[in-house]
Specification:
This protein has 104 residues and is mainly alpha-helical. It is built from five helices and no strands.
């Protein structure tokens, strides 16, 4: 599924959020993608809550082992490292590794 973030103004993305509901997996994808845009722009304060929200939604909707959860976690770790919060980044990485350690 293609994310709508790249194609719609922010106000329309918010409308899409209202149509699908706050816990829809597509909403998590769009939040992650919007956070990516903010991250690239250096707008870390805007990106962080979107990564947090996307991560929580994806974990709930898809389960902690899903690749999309890992993607959002890795994106959030990059933001934490970019803002010199290495201890927080290491903790989040460790949570991800603990989730996957039982898989080959």
């Amino acid at each position: 599924m293609v994310s709508i973030v790249a194609n719609l103004p922010i106000t329309e993305v918010e409308g899409y959020y209202q149509i699908l509901g706050p816990e829809h997996p597509q909403v998590a994808t769009d939040l992650n993608n919007l956070a990516d845009v903010y991250y690239v722009q250096g707008r870390y304060a805007d990106a962080e809550p979107r990564y947090q929200h996307a991560l929580a939604l994806r974990e709930k909707a898809l389960g902690p082992e899903h690749p999309d959860v890992a993607q959002t976690r890795n994106n959030y770790v990059a933001l934490l490292r970019a803002t010199n919060r290495d201890a927080e980044a290491a903790q989040l990485e460790a949570q991800g590794k603990a989730t996957y350690r039982h898989y080959p």
